[in-house]
Amino acid sequence: MSLPFEAYQLSPEDYERSQQALWKLTTACMQDVGFTSFSFAPSAGASEQIEEHEDLRYGTYNQQEAERLGYRPDFGQHARVAAVGGEEPRFTAEEEAALDGVSPGPTDGEPAKARSTRSAEPVPEEGCYGQALDELTGGQGETYLDDSTVEELGGQSYEKSLEDPKVVAVFARWSACMASKSLTYKSPIDANNDPSFTGDVAGTKEKQVATADTQCKNSTGLVSVWHDAEAAIQRSLISENGTKLAKIQALDAVIRAKSAAVLR
């Protein structure tokens, strides 16, 4: 379910494409400065996993998954590796120096700049990765993937939504539904965070509660009510923070356009 703030973040697909474009530019630079066999490409398919994670803002609501996994969605089925924010790729010390523009080895004080490679080819001042990042973002590399503003506002909208009268009321209906199944929780957040649900995999009780949770969410319309309440709050916050959010949206547009050009 989409929320207004999503217009101020790269979509999972846009993020994945931006990573592909970034490393295509980086690879071209690395080969230009003498690493002719250098090759690194981000893994594809990460957007699906990111979307699945973002789809659980209001907790689990898929009954079949709840019956099988409880409150533990299996994101592990979609490997998220170095290319999309997981493990770092491994490069040699010389490659690292050319990527970052910093000479390898210990230094006193500020690290020394890497001026050239073993083949005597000049290294960009900011390294191949930094140069590629500046090209991708139009010189705004320091703010690439900086979602702090949107995440902070998203946290505010989520907390405010919990106080919305319609959300409070639907939580009460959900709680009554759970009680009819002999389960005592004030809110779906309490059920999800039940401290008795421990271990590496969901136990029988956790699966029972998660299944009942999804059933009660469906019967009360909880997810739609909660989503609509938070969407209204986010629209209000957008009006209050228009200038900051417009800058973020403009940068995202630059990244999308450059990614499209690089990957043509």
From TrEMBL:
Residues 94-126 are annotated as: Disordered. This is Uncharacterized protein.
